[in-house]
Amino acid sequence: MKAVVFEKFGETPTIQTVPDPEPALDGVVIKVEATGLCRSDWHGWMGHDDGISLPHVPGHELAGVVVAAGSQVTRWKAGERVTVPFAVGCGHCFECSSGNHQVCEHQSQPGFTAWGSFAEYVAIDHADTNLVRLPDEMEFATAASLGCRFVTSFRAIVDQGRVTPGEWVAVHGCGGVGLSAIMIASAMGANVIAIDLTDEKLAFASKIGAVATINASKTPNVVKAVKQITNGGAHMSMDALGHSSTSFNSIANLRRRGRHVQVGLMLGEHARPQIPMDKVIAFELEIRGSHGMQAYRYQAMMEMIRTGKLKPELLVGKRISLDEAPAALMAMGGFEGIGIGVVTRF
Ligand SMILES: [Zn+2]
Ligand SMILES: [Zn+2]
Q: Which of 16, 50, 146, 273 sits CB 3.0–4.6 Å from 150 for a disulfide?
């Protein structure tokens, strides 16, 4: 099969012909029809993720068609249209047994712990636990765009952030994660403030539900601005970028008993950020991480998509070919264009 391969961290990936994958006994092989471009792939390529061994095929936001299933798979067969969360749970450990596959002790991650979906085919283990059936009307590009950022934002806003109607929600960073969070939080009835460095992204944030915007490049004190707009601070706030300053602001702009959810990856120089811990205690703030979403929780999100409350297709950005993926991957270290780029031609 054709795949994007890198042999050394930080070196230009190339298109190569590599052996087709075989399904594990409890796994499937999926013909990839669409795969999203994500900053996590850039981190992996840069060598920020210890789970990767070389040579490596990146890609973890995928949708496609099952072409082969192992003998132990009972729920899936060739021809079914599917997607999969980026954290693939083993189905047997304590966390999986308690319903928390997103933090499975033995999780595999396509594109990190195994070869990923920047390829014509990808193997996914533990298929019965992890595959999600796609509604017939959903395009593969939209389904791939859910894989990481949209589902992570759904869990961050709904399950971890516990947003309720009428609350103020601040979203720091309007890349794929941030825009997803804005759409989801406003569908949940919250008043959302979008914060970013570019007016273009903020204008798009307003279109998909933000009621207020802050351009952080023109605002000397973002925390103060959030407090003014919200009359005292946000109830829930999210760092969707993953940077020491956005993480700090997202905690510092909360009102008493507010909830911060960290979704943007904090890697490399940002791995150990400063936290206003004095305020965390005095205000009884909550700080939570959010890491993907369990396959069984897709159902609720898919219903909101089916009824038109959520429109993830609006967040699909440019569509490119696999041949263009190496250059696009290397560019992900900079700021993304609007929406989620997707490889749709292989
Ligand atoms: Zn597990
Ligand atoms: Zn991703």
A: 146
Beta bridge partners of 133: 82
- Going from the Cα of 148 to the center of ligand 2, the distance in angstroms, rounded, reads 4
Element at 230 (helix H, strand E) = helix 222-230
Distance CA 257, CA 254 (A): 8
CA 184 to ligand 1 centroid distance, Å: 27
CA of residue 336 to ligand 1 center, whole Å: 33
pLDDT at 334: 74
Centroid of ligand 1 to alpha carbon of 100 (angstroms): 8
Q: What is the pLDDT of residues 195-245, one digit of tens each?
A: 999 999 999 999 999 999 999 999 999 999 999 999 999 999 999 999 999
Instruction: Tell me how far apart the alpha carbons of residues 113 and 130 are, in angstroms, rounded to a whole number.
Output: 16
DSSP state of 324: G
CA of 35 to the centre of ligand 2 (A): 10
Residue 106 has pLDDT above 80, yes or no: yes
Å from CA of 211 to ligand 2 middle:
27
| Angle ∠(5,316,48) on CA atoms, nearest 5 | 40
CA–centroid distance, 95 to ligand 1, in Å, is 6
